[in-house]
Design goal:
The protein is an alpha+beta fold and 147 residues long. It is built from three helices and six strands; from the N terminus they run H-E-E-E-E-E-E-H-H.
C-alpha cells in the first residue's frame, strides 16, 4: 500500500481504483512540464523522480528528488490545472498513474472523500513548496562566482 492512500476506507479505495493504472517509465522520461495541463498524478512504488523548475537564465533547476512511497503531482487539484513544476524520471519508476479528471469528479460527488484527499494533497503541496523555497534560497542567497 502507498502512504497517501493506504489507510483510506476500502469503499473509497474501490471508487479510486477505476481511475488508476499501473505504469512503468524509464529514466529520462518527463512526466510533467511546468505550465502545461495537469491531467494526472502518480503514486511512486519504486524508482526516482526529480522535481524541477524552469528559471530564466539558468534552465531547469532541480528542486527535489522523490522516491518510493511519495506522490508526484498536485497541480491537477487546483484550477486552472496546470503544472507548477516539472518532473523527470531519473531511475526507472513503477507507479500508479491516476486520471485527474476522474478523481476531481469523485471529490465533487463525495464531500468527505474530497476533504480527506484535499488535506492529504495539501500536505504534499506544503512539502514541495517548502523544499522549493529552501533550494531557491540556496541558489540565490549568494551571488554567483564571477571570477
Amino acid at each position: 500500500m502507498h502512504p497517501l492512500t493506504g489507510d483510506l476506507p476500502a469503499g473509497w479505495l474501490r471508487r479510486l481504483a477505476p481511475h488508476a493504472r499501473p505504469v512503468y517509465r524509464r529514466a529520462g522520461h518527463r512526466l510533467t512540464r511546468q505550465d502545461t495541463p495537469a491531467e494526472q498524478f502518480w503514486l511512486l512504488h519504486s524508482g526516482t523522480v526529480v522535481i524541477d523548475l524552469h528559471v530564466p537564465g539558468r534552465g531547469d533547476v532541480v528542486l527535489e528528488e522523490l522516491g518510493a512511497g511519495t506522490t508526484v503531482g498536485w497541480s491537477w487539484l487546483v484550477a486552472p490545472y496546470r503544472w507548477q513544476f516539472g518532473a523527470v524520471v531519473t531511475d526507472d519508476i513503477r507507479a500508479l498513474e491516476f486520471n485527474a479528471a476522474g478523481i476531481r469528479a469523485l471529490i465533487a460527488e463525495n464531500d468527505e472523500l474530497g476533504r480527506e484527499l484535499s488535506a492529504r494533497f495539501l500536505s504534499v503541496v506544503a512539502d514541495r513548496l517548502r523544499t522549493a523555497r529552501h533550494r531557491l534560497v540556496g541558489l540565490y542567497a549568494y551571488p554567483a562566482d564571477t571570477t
